[in-house]
Amino acid sequence: MLVEVGYAQAWDLAAHAPWRPISPEEARERDAAGLQYVVVFRAEGRKAPLEVRLVSWRDHYVGVWVYDVQGRRTHDLDMRLLDDPAKLLLRCTVGWNYTGPEMAEFDEACPRITVELFPDGKGRRTEEPRGRYGGAHVTVPKVGDDGRWLDKPAFGEWPLISAQVHGLTEPFLVEITEAVDDSSRGPAPATCWRPPSPARPGPISELFRPGVRVTDGYHPEMTVVEPHRTGTLRVPSGLLAVSGPDINRGNGPHLTIPVTPGEYMLDEAQARHTYHCEWEGGPVTRTDTLAVRVLLSDTPAATWQMALRPDDDPRLFQEGEISGFITDGATGCFADAEAWEPLLALFEKGLIHGDPDLAPDVHQDNDSMFLLRTRDQASGGELAAFATTGDGTYPVWVGRCEAGEVVAVVVLVEGTPELLPGGGATTDT
After folding, report:
1. What residues form DSSP beta bridges with 75?
2. Over the stretch 115-163, which tens digit does the pLDDT of each residue have?
3. With 0-12 CB in 10 A as exposed, 13-18 as middle and 19+ as buried, what is 411?
């Protein structure tokens, strides 16, 4: 059997075809430079590829996609290059077991098994025997280091990983195909594969800019109003904590962010929208909070970055993955990190136990998502708790000015709103 191997700059997901074929020499140069490229393995007489290898060393990533004769992806291998340049972590594998030739690729009812592995020996195996509709069985995968870590082959020496999947147990011939003339230039189209990256911030600055039009996914059109200011937060230690307050005492906050010691404004991004209310029998206009913020400077944010927890490694993140603080009580808080323990104790006394003697140290605004503020008398540090719209993990976005200084810390209390076309946004972020 003859297996043809070709190279390209990218793989077009919509066309199921390589985009801008390149020569093996150019692929070797891109590999050495860490640039993105793909390798396509095809069998003679077969329309769909056997497998596609997607490489981007600067993103610490190499993936392998395996296809059946119908052109459906059946296996997805996600490997990461970490600290050892000779080893690859088998970060994640997904296998789809299509129940028949008529089942569409990635059908929601398709049985699948996902295995996630981590460098510390931990992992998770999720079996969905009836796809997304039938529930999941989660266990700990029994994978040793020999199955978790793979030797990184040199360029041109990668095996056909899917050989056994396709029943190619006998030796086969490999033929390197030369690139054909291709007039396509410029950036790859949006339909081309790109390496996985963590969640992106979205239009955070615009949520605090009156007149901008957005949608939160539930309401087709919302108009941003003036930020609602609810008080200040003292951070004398210069270390801002962002965390869920429902955390085991003694473990410290989920996230900490170095800032200049001081007292900073607390405010909220709000948007107004109108909807038909059956109870009122007509249109009703209301204002909802989209985000809460600690504003450290009036200087606009030039960039937004997701704050990471101490054990986070961005090289391991899946596409769109988030990290942040965790809450089981639909509550988050900003606080002075060095006074975290006494502030947390005051929070529990005030909110959970309803201590009436805490009143002088508690600030509450009925029109705000901020629901309680406490102050540690010994240090002067403060904690401001705010409501979220549910439990789970909430990313924390850190805005920095052109000089790299922190100017704002923001938490989106429900998802990431999207700008509407012509929504009044300006070019600064």
Report:
1. 66, 95
2. 999 999 999 999 999 998 888 999 999 999 999 999 999 999 999 999 9
3. buried
Q: Are 282 and 276 in contact (CB under 8 A)?
A: yes
- In whole angstroms, give the CA distance from residue 120 to residue 106: 31
Identify whether the C-beta of residue 173 lies closer than 8 Å to the C-beta of residue 42.
Answer: no
pLDDT of 75 higher than 90: yes
Q: Which of 324, 325, 243, 294 is nearest to 406 (CA)?
A: 294
Q: Mean pLDDT lowest for which of 58-72, 294-308, 340-354, 404-418?
A: 340-354
Tally of structural domains, the chain: 2
Distance, CA of 213 to CA of 424 (rounded, Å):
7
**Structural domain of residue 290, as residue ranges?**
205-419
Same domain, 130 and 215: no
Q: What is the pTM of this model?
A: 0.88
Distance CA 118, CA 198 (A): 16
Tokens at 33, concatenated = 């430079």
Q: Which helix (H) or strand (E) holds 342?
A: helix 340-347
pLDDT for the residue numbered 281: 76
pLDDT higher than threshold 90 for residue 182: no
**What is the token pair recorded at 278?**
């059956």
Q: Which of 176, 192, 215 corresponds to the end of one domain?
A: 176
On whether the CB atoms of residues 341 and 250 are closer than 8 A, the answer is yes
